[in-house]
Design goal:
- By secondary structure, the chain is an alpha/beta fold.
- It is built from 13 helices and 21 strands.
- Helix 6 packs parallel to helix 7.
- The radius of gyration is 28 Å and the shape is elongated.
Length: about 500
């Protein structure tokens, strides 16, 4: 078992050679804490060959030193097919992913993320787990006595870095997050060790892989069987863990095959969008109030939404716990009636509560931002929700033309340069020929039918409600024919809905 310490230190030194120039290496004995060191190494190394191209798929590789060995070969094999990137550091065990995966992935969306971890999770530690553990833990490396042949290292008081139950929990968290940042995620099974057959780590890796395969099936994550590939090429291992160039080439072939398959299986992302001004449930006419003890016209509004069955619906003119709404939390009531998730953005404090915008969605937003804008009678706002495949922005413009034009400038500035499609919807209080809509047309493509009137619901005579997509993603966005739904029993605006898909 003395050899195990030698092996780990040798592996650690080998790993440092693979890290790209400009990134702090593990054997540099950094002054910063271990976690700070990992963050300092958060540099993305891009593909060799042609410069990154917006038309090529984007692939991110995450993994340990085995991954560092095969990544350069994967990049070479995918030149011209996909732009491949990876953090310029050893991503380590699953606990490191929990701390750093958001930094490694960044704000961009990836077509494919290929990830693996497991060898580090099976390391033995003694003392507190403070990052690198066995590599940097002085208490461990200085305290190891001579180990008798046949003695299991666990019998000396060592523990497994990540017990199997924690590994499964971490795996679900990591893969769940990565699924929100990529069209397809693929997990590489942990490779075997040669020469440690008497150590239960060899058998335990197989068990960890079985758990990983189970989790991947449940989360619709692809699998690259790196274990099987490595097992057929153990003669190409150089130190019981790492591989020669020929060995890494075999692993790279398996990763490339998985990436290509994942790219072929990436479907067009389909979404049903809807925008609906509900006039705070007060109906199409009459005072802005909901009779006490009732839900007002919210059930009728909810019925319109249920019939359409949207993935996302932008709601304008909605109250939360105001006196005029009889204290109702209207976004939550609509959520309850439609089975969707409610997100609310207040733009005005009003009679004991708030008045504003809402987005109802099947998927809970990843983030929510509210941008306030000047209005005539009251402050207006732009509500921006980020979802897995897109951003959805909801607004209700002012009544005066000059304020609408100013609001359009704010919207264009706030929604520019997003990495995912931006669907902009709402009651814009502006006709298609207005300066406001012309200005928005420089940054957005209108998907709704501007010739179809949307207001007032009883006898529509003008178009003031819209569904748009940002111009940068418009070429890749296919939209169905928009449908205008008049429901004067519910509210004074018609609803608009349509289906979109992004290649």
């Amino acid at each position: 078992m003395r050899n195990e310490v030698v092996f780990i230190c040798a592996a650690f030194a080998a790993m440092s050679v693979a890290v790209v120039s400009g990134c702090a290496t593990p054997d540099a004995k950094p002054d910063a804490s271990r976690e700070d060191w990992l963050l300092q190494t958060n540099l993305l190394e891009r593909s060799a060959g042609p410069a990154a191209c917006a038309e090529r798929p984007r692939v991110l590789i995450l993994g340990d030193s085995i991954s560092l060995g095969y990544t350069p070969l994967v990049k070479e094999k995918l030149v011209g097919v996909a732009d491949v990137s990876r953090p310029a550091c050893n991503c380590g065990p699953s606990e490191f992913y929990l701390k750093n995966m958001r930094d490694w992935v960044g704000t961009n969306r990836w077509n494919v993320i290929h990830v693996n971890f497991g060898i580090w999770d099976n390391h033995y530690l003694k003392g507190p787990s403070d990052g690198m553990g066995l590599f940097w833990g002085k208490e461990i490396t200085n305290a190891l006595p001579p180990i008798a042949k046949g003695t299991a290292i666990r019998d000396l008081g060592f523990r497994i870095r990540t017990p199997i139950d924690d590994y499964e929990k971490n795996l679900r968290t990591v893969l769940g997050f990565l699924n929100t940042r990529a069209d397809r995620v693929v997990f590489g099974l942990t490779t075997p060790l040669k020469g440690w057959e008497k150590d239960d780590r060899c058998g335990r890796i197989r068990v960890y892989n079985e758990v990983a395969e189970k989790v991947c099936r449940e989360l619709n994550v692809g699998v690259t069987d790196l274990y099987a590939v490595a097992e057929r090429n153990l003669d190409k291992q150089t130190d019981g863990c790492h591989f020669s160039t020929a060995g890494y080439d075999k692993l790279a072939d398996a990763v490339v095959a998985s990436v290509r398959q994942a790219l072929e299986r990436t479907p067009a992302r389909k979404l049903r969008l809807m925008t609906f001004n509900v006039r705070m449930g007060a109906g199409a006419e009459g005072p802005f109030e909901v009779p006490a003890g009732t839900l007002g016209h919210l059930p009728q509004c909810a019925e319109v939404i249920r019939r359409v069955a949207p993935d996302v619906v932008c709601i304008q003119e909605i109250d939360r716990k105001t006196d005029r709404a009889a204290g109702l939390d209207e976004p939550e009531e609509l959520a309850r009636l439609t089975g969707l998730h409610a997100t609310f953005a207040p733009k005005l404090k009003l009679s004991g509560g708030e008045y504003g915008l809402a987005i109802l969605s099947k998927e809970k937003p990843l983030s929510v931002e509210t941008v306030y804008m000047p209005g005539s009678a009251h402050t207006r706002c732009l509500m921006i929700c980020e979802f897995r495949d897109c951003f959805v922005a909801n607004t209700h413009f002012p009544l005066k033309d000059e304020l609408c034009e100013n609001a359009a400038k704010i919207v264009r500035a706030c929604l520019a340069g997003k990495s995912k499609p931006v669907y902009f919807m709402g009651d814009l209080n502006s006709k298609p020929t207005s300066a406001t809509i012309r200005a928005l047309g420089e940054s957005f493509k209108t998907l709704s039918d501007v010739s179809a009137f949307t207001f007032p619901a009883k006898q529509p005579d003008r178009t003031i409600d819209y569904v748009m997509v940002d111009a940068a993603h418009a070429p890749d966005c296919a939209a169905s024919a928009p449908v205008v739904v008049a429901a004067p029993e519910a509210t004074d605006h018609c609803a608009i809905w349509l289906d979109v898909s992004v290649r």
